[in-house]
Each structure stands twice: as C-alpha cells, then as structure tokens.
Amino acid sequence: xxxxxxxxLLTDAQVxxxxxxxxxxxxxxxxxxxxxxxxLLERLDAPDHGVEIAFLASGNSTIELLSPTDRESGTARFxxxxxxxxxxxxxxxxxxxxxxxxxxxxxxxLVDESPRQxxxxxxxxxxxxxxxxxxxxxxxxxxxxxLE
Length: 148
Description:
148 residues, alpha+beta, 2,3-Dihydroxybiphenyl 1,2-Dioxygenase, domain 1, 36% strand, metal-binding, MeMalonyl-CoA_epimerase, metal ion binding, EC 5.1.99.1, Methylmalonyl-CoA epimerase
C-alpha cells in the first residue's frame, strides 16, 4: 500500500493527451479525422521508439495515435498482448525530475527512474500497477513544444 506523504504531487499538472495504440495508422486517421472530425496536428515517424505517431485535436482535447513500426518495440508488444486501445494518459508537469523524486518518495512504482527524451520533451512513465491499471506518462515539454 502506498503511504501518501504529499497530496499535491500532480495538482498543477494538466492532461496533455491520451495515447491510443492502433494497428494501422492510416486506417485510424480515416476514422478519427474523416468520421469523428478530429484535426491532424502532427504526423511523424519515430524510429528510435519503433512507432509512427499522429497527434490529433478536437476542441481542447488532444490524442496521440501510436502504431508500431518495429516488431520488438514496447508498443508492438502492447498491441500483441492487449490489442488496439488506450495506452496511456499523459500529464504535463513543470519539473519532471522533481515530480519523479516526489513519486519515488511516496512509494510509487515507476517504469522510468529518470526522465528520457521523448517527441516533445522529457518523459517518464508511472507503472500501471501504481495507478489502478492506467499507465501515466509525465511530460516536461521542451521550449520548442510549449503549448500556448
């Protein structure tokens, strides 16, 4: 059981996006943009992560579609194990190192003990077992990717 020492860990965090794993990115874009009306913000290949990614928006909400390009990637393993669907909820935090230190001090199980470079800044993941089955991504956006 986690002993909560500080209840303000993510009080200033904002939901940045929800990550969804898909088998076929083009097919998913046809659904999300063509049928559901989402707007494509950015599409990119991330070979270092073994995925192709698309960021979509509707109103104030953003989703990230992830499609594996490398059969050995974590995303490919997730897709093989669980199928298409929700992968993570991402929270933007002002200081990812401090946030990770506080989570560790509170006994929260982490996937990443220290931040690593992601697409839009530094990222780290909280283990799904620490958050009732939901993987949480923490994101400290770099200056080039700050949202207005």
